[in-house]
Amino acid sequence: MKTSIATVSIAGNLREKLGAIADAGFDGIEIFEQDFIADAGSPRDVGRMIRDHGLEITLFQPFRDFEGLPAGLRAKAFDRAERKFDLMQDLGTDLILLCSSVHPEALGGIDRAAADFAELGDRAARRGLRVGYEALAWGRHVNDHRDAWEVVRRADHPNVGLILDSFHTLARKIDPDTIRRIPGDRIFFVQLADAPAIDMDLLYWSRHFRNMPGEGDLPVEAFTRAVLATGYAGPVSLEIFNDQFRGSSARTITRDGYRALIATLDDVRRSEPELTVDLPPMPARIPVQGIAFVEFATRNGEAQSLKQLLAALGFEAVASHIAKDITLWQQGGIRIVVNEEADDFAGTAFNVHGTNVCDIGLSVDSAADTVVRATALGASPFSQPLGPGQLDIPAIRGLGGSVLHFLDDTGKLADVWSIEFGAGSARDVTGAGLVAIDHIAQTMTYGEMLSWSLFYTSLFRMGKSPMVDVVDPDGLVRSQALETDTGSFRITLNGAESHRTLAGAFLSESFGAPVQHLALATNDIFATAAALADRGFEALPISQNYYADLAARFDIPADTLDRMRAANILYDEDAHGAFYQLYSRPFANGMFIEILERRNGYAGYGAPNAPFRIAAQKRFMRQSGIPSR
Ligand code: MG
Ligand code: MG
Predict the structure, then answer these.
(1) Distance 337 CA to ligand 2 centre (A)
(2) Ligand of minimum distance to the alpha carbon of 97
(3) Over residues 408-424, mean pLDDT
């Protein structure tokens, strides 16, 4: 299908917008009049510039307050339309959007509006142009696509058609299946937008809070299915009014938009296979079996500190890479790769961020399929020159400059560890009883959170939990968990609004390193805490007040509470079970390790403890002279 995006959705001048839109993979644009007016070029120059970017103008918009006007105003509206037709011909586009009138003097009546459109259709036809009618959710007389369709139907003119916009239909909770009875060839254009569920004035909600399909709470996929069920085969376009997006990088927003649009169309054909969706085939969302490895980029003194920490955590260096300065550390089912190479991707990542997690490896059914789906959604494949004996492991660039590698059980990939690290890689290490990576916590600005959740949920079979507020003494951090239904892969996203929060300070100190903490699971938190202490591991000290409060909130036996206090173990419970966690002290630019035990299917992440943990980290950093803002 032809993909399109409205220029109003992104930041920049027209040239910058066109570059970002073309690079993201779109076929066309809806040109907003303001974008055209603000450009210095003539209409013909602007049209040529758009086509030079390989883009088509799918729609010119908006034209407001046309239909139902009393005689004098009516004539002026037709004059205005003729001037816009001139402009469209110069730009090189044949379709204009007319949104339903909000004019205070506009008169109601379907037949009156239909007569206006029939006449406008005649005038458009003389120039080979078409007009499309859209019901605004707050239109004065027409605010429902069913009424707009009735106007178009009665106008009965081949150059007059309907324009559908998911926001206007879904925000008013109109059943999208009512679209199915409209003939597809009478629908001239379709706009998709999602929005978070907020109870507010429709116009304000629409102009400021729209977001990409899948990022909000509206049933955009069901809407799109209904549209395609009519046989509509024209462009599918994003029209996203969002204050935050308009202040963000145009390249990020256009990539997100393309990803959201393709994922939605792919969802449509999966949920209603009888529909024809003109989109190349791609694998379905990828199930993730687990985290195969986490790779740190590090060097020199920081490398020594990291290795000391890993040893204190019970990890053992089981093997060295056959060709590169890379060590494999293991414990239970956890593999940590410590990369000290100066010249490869890790070397570059270290130069930018200092010690950081530069690469995450995921176990999937088919690594090749994963890369196919990711690239279909607009991700870039990743590769770097191979050393002798190294395998070409399928990989993509993630967000925040990181890399994701994919491992499966096919061919040589199944033996990647023995091929690249030799026989030592098969050794079992019990260590301190850590068995698996429970979750990876990534930090970004609050404004980037939607990009990250869309990236993961469009590529992998993962759900997202509601966003929660975490109180840092110096500001709010938003936190959202993404997880597979089996818990085989869990990511927590932490969006910092202020650089003074711990998450924000980490972002600025590390120049945007994506991973702030790794959470490692044990089946016996007390045995692990004792084993860690034997190895010289120093936990983050937790305040006595925390334990006094814990005793008041939960029914914990006194001796258990004493053991928790002694080992700095935090506690939470949910409807399923109990949760124990302890933290390392911060290392590198403020990264840390969390150790946790989930009992009886506890499903959360200890969010109620986060404010106390953050306060303890800031206290510790202050006392140790580590910058924490
Ligand atoms: Mg619209
Ligand atoms: Mg955590």
Answers:
(1) 21
(2) 1
(3) 94
For residue 598, give the ligand nearest its CA.
2
In angstroms, what is the span from residue 184 Cα to ligand 1's centroid?
A: 18
Looking from the CA of 602 toward its CB, the CA atoms found within 13 Å total: 20
Expressed as residue numbers, the domain containing 595 is 434-624
How does strand 578-583 pair with strand 570-573? Answer: antiparallel
Per-chain mean pLDDT for the chain? 95
Establish if 280 belongs to a structural domain: no
> Ligand 2 center to residue 594 CA distance, Å?
6
Specify the amino acid at residue 578. A
**Domain shared by 420 and 456, yes or no:** no
| Residues 64-91: tens digit of each pLDDT | 999 999 999 999 999 999 999 999 999 9
Distance CA 510, CA 296 (A): 14
- At 628 the pLDDT is 58
How many domains, in total, are found in the chain? 3
Is 195 found in the same domain as 69? Answer: yes
pLDDT at 629 over 70: no
CA of 362 from ligand 2 middle (Å) equals: 19
- CATH classification at residue 167: 3.20.20.150
Give yes or no: residues 243 and 299 share one domain. no
Q: What separation in Å is there between the alpha carbon of 450 and the centre of ligand 1?
A: 22
Strand duo 490-496 + 475-483: pairing = antiparallel
Cα 15 to ligand 1 centre (Å): 23
pLDDT band at 507 (very low <50, low <70, confident <90, very high): confident
